[in-house]
């Protein structure tokens, strides 16, 4: 008896595979019942399963930084594989996320880590797909899953649609073949089971919340921005120049409904962490606004690529948009666009064509012309400008204007303010970037509402949206 054959027979003997007539949860009558939970009571069988799975992982050349077991039966298997294969383990909680901010993924990981999912049995693939979705939502990459046993009820295709390759040790066809060969079941039982499997192919339900949450993934960042403006009736971007990310997170929960975008400077935060910034990202998804890191990149392409993707901030992991000076030439945009291609979500940038500060050297016709030319050349990635005037009649480019205040004309360090009406009417702004006018007000939410109302009213009037 070969190794796998003997394992199948042992599983039959400990009643992991049962044949007869069983009523499934769905109400369907099934000629086979498979329950691998019993394996935890048989350490030799447990190890043997892990060894076979490990073998497939090695042969398939799976590149992974961590391994995530799906509760419950796959957890002890995953633990053995993690130890043998020397990979850290992650666990996705089984409970739903409806109790506050409790983490769904346990264990340590880095954004963009490649994670292999381990499951005991696959039927439709729904639990693997759900696990992959939670891992991907945390910024991990999931391309492969391994199961011990595939019921061949279309799980493989269902997972392929979710861009997951399914690896497996055994299929139901192989199990039936072994059990007939070693006289555990008759040919007739095997045929009945095969027929049942053929007639009970599955499809993954496309649950509504998933579609809502991932709808934006199939849209370009430009389309998403336009949709947010129209749906939420706001062209207000809050410039959340506060020292604490905790405070920004709290504020964004209150002001989320009023804004189309939240702009931050990650390098002024005294409590930056990837965990917190991903929390802010989650809030931006929930309230449907974009996250803009006002990084003002201004170096050669090669350096900017690293500044965008690496270091403490890993900006490309969470910022939908970044600001970019065009001073170094178009290589800077080329570099960012290239780097953004490895991210699973749409990314884009705003070119800083003009600045609001007194004496800004951007006040030069050639400079502005260069910015517009570059935007047109890289129009997939450049979705607009930071500007103080309307730079082009091409309305696919959004003009975002900082330096907005209803009752102030400037600060002591060169900032110059205009009102929302002046910005939209006189300066051609689509988006109003407002910082201290809101942050320093007594009631931030109420003030944000005022800027939203005034801003969108004038915008609607003048841009005829
Ligand atoms: P304020 O508090 O509304 O003055 O903040 C304006 C924000 O916009 C602040 O974060 C600046 O760094 C940012 N800004 C700007 O004020 N002017 C510019 O030309 C550019 C960015 Br580019």
Word description of this protein:
The chain has an eight-stranded parallel barrel, surrounded by seven helices. 40% of the residues lie in helices and 18% in strands. It has two domains: 3-199, Rossmann fold; 214-463, TIM Barrel. With 465 residues, it is α/β, with parallel strands linked by helices. It has helices at residues 3-13, 43-59, 74-85, 126-137, 155-161, 172-181, 187-199, 208-214, 221-232, 245-255, 274-286, 301-309, 331-340, 365-377, 420-426, 436-439, 444-463, and strands at 17-23, 29-34, 66-69, 89-92, 105-106, 115-122, 144-150, 165-171, 236-239, 261-264, 290-297, 321-325, 348-352, 382-386, 398-402, 431-434. The relative contact order is 0.07. Helix 10 links the parallel strand 9 (236-239) and strand 10 (261-264). The structure holds 5-bromo-uridine-5'-monophosphate (5BU). 5-bromo-uridine-5'-monophosphate is lined by residues 239, 241, 294, 352, 355-357, 386, 402-403, 415, 433-437.
